[in-house]
Amino acid sequence: MAINKQKKNELVADFTELLSSAKTTVYAKYQGLTVAELQELRKAAREAGVKIKVVKNRLVKVAMNNIAVYKDTDTTGLTGQLLYATSSEDEVAPAKVLANFAKDHDALNLLGGFSDLGAALTESDVKALAAMPSKNELIAQVVAQLLSPATDTISALSGGLSGIVSGLEAHAN
User: Fold this and answer.
1) Domain residues for 138?
2) Whether residue 73 is found in the same domain as residue 125
3) 128 and 139 share a domain?
4) Cα separation values, 151 from 89, 130, 140, 162, Å
5) SS3 call for 96
């Protein structure tokens, strides 16, 4: 179904805005997924703060040319029916959502992506991103490491104090 020029301009403007705010954009072939599976993917993406868009590659290239950072980005991988996953909050989330979905759905094939600095990401780059902990997981790990000495000290002191109290109680009787 052909769309008019005004609709194309709206799609380009929307995708330009989406790309401009995205920390990472990942694209994948989705040919063979059912409508129900696509809805399942969109739901999982929403829960992770990721937006999924299906846009013609030609319009994506036009949108990328509208953004200074993406003007020189290699777009040769943008062929066939692709869906694009973006996140303005987390660099890892788009890759993680698509990779997790692809584990159970062979029809979804990760192909590549773009960083917010305009660098093209290969399939292996995207898979490496997907294997990384999310931003929240990294923060939790750092906080746990920072709190570890305090937790260990409190544990040692509470164990020592209970031993002293038990000894005093035994001696008093």
Assistant:
1) 134-173
2) yes
3) no
4) 31, 31, 15, 16
5) helix
Q: Domain count of the chain?
A: 2
Q: DSSP secondary-structure letter at 76?
A: T
Kindly give the residue spans of alpha helices, DSSP state H, lying in the chain. Answer: 5-21, 35-47, 57-65, 93-104, 123-131, 135-172
The token duo for 141 is 């790990």
Considering only CA atoms, which of 103, 169, 168 is closest in space to residue 131? 103
Whether residue 109 is found in the same domain as residue 58? yes
* Predicted TM-score (pTM) above 0.85: no
Assess whether 34 and 89 both reside in one domain. Answer: yes
> What are 45-77's pLDDT values in tens digits?
999 999 999 989 898 999 988 888 888 888 888
